[in-house]
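Example 3.2
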Amino acid sequence: MSTDVLSDVLSAVHLTGAVFFDVSARAPWVAEAPPSQRIARDVAPGSQHTIEYHVVTRGSCWISIVDRGDFEPVELGEGDIAVMPHGDPHALSSRPGMRAEPEWSIFQRPQDANLLPFRLNTGGDGPADTHLVCGFFSCDARPFNPLLASLPRFMRLGRTANTPEGLLDQFIRLATAEAGNKRAGSQSILNRLSELMFVEVVRQHMDQLGGDHTGWLAGLRDPLVGRALAQLHAHPARAWTLEDLASEAGASRSALAERFAQLVGYPPIQYLTQWRMQIAARRLTDRGVKVAAVAQEIGYDSEAAFSRAFKKFVGQSPSEWRSSPG
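Structure, written as C-alpha cells:
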C-alpha cells in the first residue's frame, strides 16, 4: 500500500535521473558543488528542482554542507550513498574541512551524449585511492511535492557488517561496471539505475524513521494514515468527505483527523486538494488535453470551479501555468 502511494508521487513529480561524473580522486583532493539551483539549467534543462547524490564505489572521503556551522563533516566509506535532497552547496574531500572554488565549466552538459558520464580526475599525482559515481535527479517541486518536503537536507545510507546485500549493493556494482565500460547505452542504463537507487534510499530512510518523526513519509508508514493516503491516491476524483475517508480507513472521524494532522501537518481534505493540483499541473503540460477534461479527471464539476481552485493554490491560472516555462 505505502509503496503504491510512493510510486504515485514519484511518477506525478516526474522524477528523472541523470549521471554525469565518474570521479577518480588522489589525495589530497577537494571538490565543491554549488547550490543546485545555480546549475539546474545546465545539468537538467527544464527541471524545477535538482537533487544531487554521490556513491563511493572505492575508498573513502568526507562530505560537508558549506556554510552550515551546525553540520559536522561526515565520513563516507566504500558502498555509502550520500543524497542532498534540497540541493545544498557541499564539499567532498580527502580530509574534513577542505574547501575549493566550484568548477562551473564541468556542469555544462555536452551536446554529444556519448561523452557522458564525464571522466573526472582530481587531486594529486599518486594512485587513485577514491572512486565515486556522482549525479543528479530532477523533479517537480511545484505546485505540490509531499515527498521532497519530508526529506532531510542530507541523507546517508550504507552497508554495515550486519546488513544483507540488497538493491543498493546491486546498484553500486552495476553503476561501477557501466561507468567503467562506457558502452553504447550506458548513460540511459545509469539514469534508470539511479532512479531505482533513489527509490530504495527513500524506502530505507522511511524504514529508519523513529516513532517521534512527523511528515509525509511518517504518515505513509503509519497504518491509519497510510490507509487514508492510499485511498486518496487511488481515487483522487472522488467527492471525499472526512466521514467517508475515515470509514474506508477503518477509524472514527476524530481519530483520523487528529492522527493525519499530527503526522502530515494538515487535514486530509486539504491534502487531497493539494494532490489534485499536482495531478492537474502535470496533466496541463500535455497541450492536447483540454482544461475542462483535467478538471473532470480530478473531481471538479466545472472548469470555472477548477480554475478558481488552481489559481488560489498555484498563483496562476491553468492557462498561465500551461504557457509558463516551469
